[in-house]
Design a protein that fits this description.
The protein is mainly beta. The protein is 5% helix and 50% strand. Strand 8 and strand 9 form a beta hairpin.
Length: 320
């Protein structure tokens, strides 16, 4: 019997002990049909000559695990685990524990270590169920545009593939952040001339390979500096920010997505704060026959704040 793409299910659970597989997923993600956890085998060819025209059998090389989740709707209830996995650190508080006990605020920031939080991911393909321990979120790429949902794609790296038990996925009602719930501030001022935006966070996670009596990686480590890049399309009404590009000056950027009410006046909200960006491109161009620019930027560590990105998430999730 053939198996259809819609039958696939993805789940995950944060690992209690790093690299030790969890038995079953605790949370679930609705993803695009092309999403896949790929476990691949390399071969080491036999290149010796033996007086005959032909090759002998290859030897087994490393086993490599990587995957993509694309696209995922940006929702307040599910984005927190992905932010924690990619950035590594979270501090949780309650803005009003007495009057709004179901509201929590989480501040995600970059962990200055090589070992980031690990998860066991699960994929049910219909034909079988597999789990992938020591999964690390390598990259998150966010996008948002007029007349659309805010979405992201995630790249992961994992250690190995194992058989797993069947699971029942539980999904809540879709509540994605929408284009009309998006506020983009440049230097602290909302700019209503921006048509679309994108932002990527890449921690450089990669397999650490040693002579560990296994074809699998020993660990998954983030050994490179955090790379944060992005861009936006904007209609020109002022040249002030373009002049900063020419002067190699810096700007502050805040991406704020606000959803429905959780309790009292508190709403689901995600705020991505980049206190210092450098524009790498700010050209004159046309957007739908109007003067505009396809802007590109990269984020730097701000000396005043000590970070290059901070994500503040307000939702009803108590702990990550």
């Amino acid at each position: 019997m053939p198996f259809a793409a819609y039958q696939k299910k993805f789940g995950f659970k944060k690992e209690v002990t790093r690299g030790v597989s969890e038995a079953a997923p605790a949370k679930f993600l609705a993803v695009g049909p092309e999403s896949e956890m790929a476990y691949k085998a390399a071969t080491i060819p036999d290149d010796k000559i033996r007086g005959v025209k032909g090759r002998f059998a290859a030897s087994p090389g490393v086993l490599d695990g990587s995957g993509n989740l694309n696209p995922v709707d940006l929702e307040a209830s599910t984005i927190g685990d992905l932010l924690l996995g990619c950035l590594g650190s979270v501090a949780t508080s309650q803005p009003d524990a007495t009057n709004s006990p179901t509201v929590f605020r989480h501040i995600f920031s970059a962990l200055n270590q090589t070992k980031l939080p690990s998860f066991t991911f699960f994929e049910d393909r219909g034909i079988s169920v597999k789990r992938y321990p020591l999964t690390t979120l390598k990259k998150l790429a966010f996008t948002g545009a007029v007349n659309g949902k805010a979405q992201l794609s995630a790249e992961v790296v994992f250690k190995t593939e194992e058989p797993a038990s069947a699971f029942t996925a539980v999904y809540g009602s879709p509540k994605p952040f929408m284009f009309f719930q998006t506020d983009i501030k440049v230097d602290g001022v909302s700019d209503a001339n921006i048509k679309s935006w994108n932002l990527s966070i890449d921690n450089g996670a990669q397999a650490q390979r040693t002579l560990n009596l296994s074809r699998d990686a020993k660990d998954i480590l983030a050994v490179k500096p955090l790379t944060i890049e992005g861009g936006f399309e904007i209609y020109f009404e002022t040249e002030a920010q373009r002049q900063k590009f020419l002067d190699v000056g810096v700007a502050a950027l805040d991406l704020i997505l606000t959803g429905g009410i959780i309790e009292d006046t508190f709403k689901n909200e995600l705020k991505l704060s980049l206190p210092e960006i450098n524009y790498t491109e700010y050209p004159y161009g046309l957007i739908e026959d109007l003067l505009g620019a396809a802007v590109k930027f990269q984020a730097n560590i701000s000396p005043s704040t000590g970070y290059n990105i901070q994500a503040t998430l307000t939702n009803a999730v108590a702990v990550y």
